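Re: [ENG-882] Designed sequences occasionally contain unexpected residues at chain ends

Forwarding the minimal case from QA. C-alpha cells:
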C-alpha cells in the first residue's frame, strides 16, 4: 500500500483495523469478509493507477460504489484479502444532465437521493427510476449488478450508455459509439458498430466502470396509484393471471407489484417474539391480525398510471377496478388511501421515482440478518403458485418466514425473497446458509436457476453453471491473467 500512498497520497488508502472492520461487514449468514486494505480513488485516472499498481504487486481489487446493496454483500468482497476500491467515496459527481434528450452522466458515487435532488433543483423536467432500497445506494452500481426499479425505465442496466471502463491492464475502454473518440452519440446510441459489449461489464469482473450515462424519462404531470388486496395465500395463481394481460397489453405503464403480507407489514413491524415464544414461521392467526391492522391482504397488488391530470386518469382506474373486481375477491384501495398508509406509500414512491427509506424497516424483522433470494418467475399462475409452494415449504422447514414481492412485467416477474434471520445467533446463521442452499437446489429441480446473488453465493452459484463458467473463465484469462479485478465475483475466475 506504500506504492498507492506515494502515488495518490496518504488519504487514498487505509489499512486501519477500524476501516477493515467497516468494509468487511455484511448482513449475510456466512459472516464478514475482511479486506486487505481500502482504497479511495478520486478520478478515473486514479483507478487506472490502482489497477496498474495491482498488476505490478500481485494484488486483487474489489470495486464497490456506495456499499448500500443491503442483504447482497455491502462493501465486503467475495474473498478475504481483496483490496476494496471504494469508488463512491470521492467519485460522486453528476457530470452532465441533458434535459432535452433525457440522460445524466454520473460517477459511481452518485446516489438515488442525490440524482433525485438534482432533478428537483432543475424543476422536475426528468424523473429517475429508483429502487425501493436505500436512497443512498449507487445508481451506477445498482445498474451494473442488474438491479431494477418500477417505472417504465425499470431496467437500470438497459438504461446505461457510454460507459467508461478501466480494463485489467489499466487502459480505458468505452463500448459502442464511445470507442470512437469525440462521438456525439456516445450517451445516446447503444447499437453502434460491431458486437454489443456493454453486457460483459454487468455482474462481472472484466473491468471497472467509472462513468456512464443513465437514461431518464420525462416526469409526468400526474401520477395516480392504485392497489387491490386479495385475502388468501391460495389466491396467488389467480392474481398473476389477472396481472399478466395488463402488462402484456401495456395497459399499466409501471411494473405491477404483488406483495405478500409479511413483506408488507415487515416494513413497520418487528417479529413478535413475546407472543410466539420465538416460533418461526409466524403463525397464520398472527399474520391475519397484522394484515387487518395495516389494511393489506395475503397478497396486495399495486401499480400506477401517468397522465396530464389526476381526473384524466379516472377511466384508467375504473378499467383496472373492473378487471380485478371480476374475481370477486379483490378489495380496491384508492390513491388517497395509499398516500395515508406508511406501508402502501412505499409503492407510490417507487412508481413516482422517489427514493424511500421506508422499506428498510424489513431489516429489523429478526435482529439484522438479511439475504436476498431472487429467482425469475414466469407470468403463469400455476408456475408462480409452484414457486410459492416450494419457497414456503423450504423456508418453513428451516424455520424462516416467507416474505416475497413479485415485481411483474409482461412475461416474467422478479421474485424478491427477503430472508431475515438473527445474525447474532451462530446456529441460526448456519441454518440460514443451509436454507439458502436448499432453496437453490429446490429451484434447480423445478427449472429455475439462481439469478442475482449475494456475494457469499456468487462462487457457489457459478459452480453450477458449467458452460457459463467455462466461457467467462476464458474471457477472464484473456483480459485479466493476473486476477487483478475481483476474482470470484459471480463465480468468474481465470483458467
Amino acid at each position: 500500500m506504500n506504492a498507492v500512498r506515494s502515488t495518490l497520497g496518504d488519504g487514498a488508502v487505509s489499512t486501519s483495523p477500524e476501516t477493515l472492520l467497516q468494509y468487511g461487514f455484511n448482513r449475510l449468514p456466512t459472516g464478514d469478509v475482511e479486506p486487505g486494505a481500502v482504497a479511495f480513488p478520486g478520478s478515473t485516472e486514479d483507478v487506472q493507477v490502482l489497477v496498474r499498481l495491482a498488476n505490478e504487486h500481485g494484488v486483487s481489487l474489489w470495486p464497490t460504489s456506495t456499499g448500500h446493496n443491503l442483504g447482497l454483500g455491502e462493501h465486503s468482497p467475495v474473498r478475504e484479502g481483496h483490496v476494496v476500491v471504494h469508488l463512491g467515496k470521492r467519485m460522486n459527481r453528476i457530470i452532465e444532465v441533458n434535459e432535452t434528450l433525457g440522460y445524466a452522466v454520473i460517477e459511481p458515487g452518485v446516489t438515488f437521493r442525490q440524482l433525485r435532488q438534482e432533478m428537483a433543483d432543475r424543476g422536475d423536467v426528468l424523473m429517475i427510476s429508483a429502487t425501493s432500497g436505500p436512497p443512498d445506494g449507487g445508481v451506477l452500481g445498482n445498474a451494473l449488478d442488474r438491479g431494477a426499479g418500477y417505472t417504465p425505465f425499470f431496467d437500470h442496466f438497459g438504461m446505461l450508455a457510454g460507459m467508461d471502463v478501466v480494463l485489467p491492464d489499466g487502459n480505458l475502454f468505452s463500448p459502442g459509439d464511445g470507442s470512437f473518440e469525440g462521438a456525439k452519440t456516445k450517451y445516446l446510441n447503444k447499437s453502434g458498430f460491431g458486437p454489443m459489449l456493454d453486457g460483459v461489464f454487468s455482474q462481472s469482473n472484466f473491468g471497472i466502470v467509472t462513468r456512464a450515462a443513465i437514461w431518464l424519462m420525462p416526469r409526468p404531470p400526474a401520477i395516480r396509484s392504485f392497489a387491490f388486496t386479495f385475502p388468501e395465500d391460495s389466491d396467488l395463481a389467480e392474481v398473476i393471471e389477472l396481472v399478466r394481460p395488463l402488462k402484456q397489453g401495456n395497459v399499466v405503464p409501471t411494473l405491477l407489484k404483488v406483495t405478500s403480507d409479511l413483506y408488507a407489514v415487515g416494513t413497520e413491524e418487528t417479529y413478535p417474539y413475546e407472543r410466539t415464544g420465538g416460533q418461526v414461521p409466524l403463525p397464520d392467526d398472527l399474520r391475519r391480525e397484522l394484515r387487518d391492522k395495516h389494511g393489506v391482504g395475503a397478497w396486495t397488488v399495486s401499480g400506477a398510471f401517468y397522465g396530464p391530470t389526476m381526473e384524466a386518469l379516472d377511466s384508467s382506474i375504473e378499467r383496472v377496478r373492473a378487471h380485478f373486481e371480476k374475481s370477486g375477491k379483490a378489495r380496491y384501495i384508492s390513491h388517497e388511501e395509499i398516500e395515508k398508509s406508511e406501508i402502501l406509500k412505499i409503492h407510490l414512491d417507487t412508481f413516482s421515482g422517489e427514493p424511500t427509506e421506508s422499506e428498510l424497516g424489513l431489516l429489523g424483522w429478526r435482529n439484522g440478518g438479511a439475504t436476498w433470494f431472487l429467482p425469475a418467475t414466469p407470468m403463469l399462475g400455476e408456475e408462480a403458485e409452484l414457486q410459492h409452494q416450494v419457497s414456503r415449504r423450504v423456508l418453513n422447514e428451516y424455520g424462516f418466514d416467507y416474505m416475497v414481492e413479485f415485481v411483474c412485467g409482461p412475461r416474467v416477474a422478479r421474485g424478491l425473497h427477503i430472508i431475515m434471520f438473527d445474525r447474532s445467533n451462530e446456529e441460526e446463521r448456519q441454518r440460514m446458509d443451509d436454507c439458502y442452499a436448499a432453496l437453490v437446489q429446490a429451484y434447480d429441480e423445478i427449472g429455475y436457476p439462481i439469478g442475482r446473488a449475494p456475494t457469499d453465493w456468487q462462487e457457489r452459484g457459478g459452480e453450477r453453471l458449467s458452460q457459463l463458467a467455462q466461457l467467462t473463465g476464458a474471457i477472464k484469462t484473456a483480459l485479466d491473467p493476473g486476477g487483478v479485478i475481483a476474482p470470484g465475483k459471480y463465480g468468474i475466475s481465470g483458467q
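QA comment: On inspection the terminal residues look reasonable. The longest strand covers residues 412-422. Proposing we downgrade this to a documentation issue.
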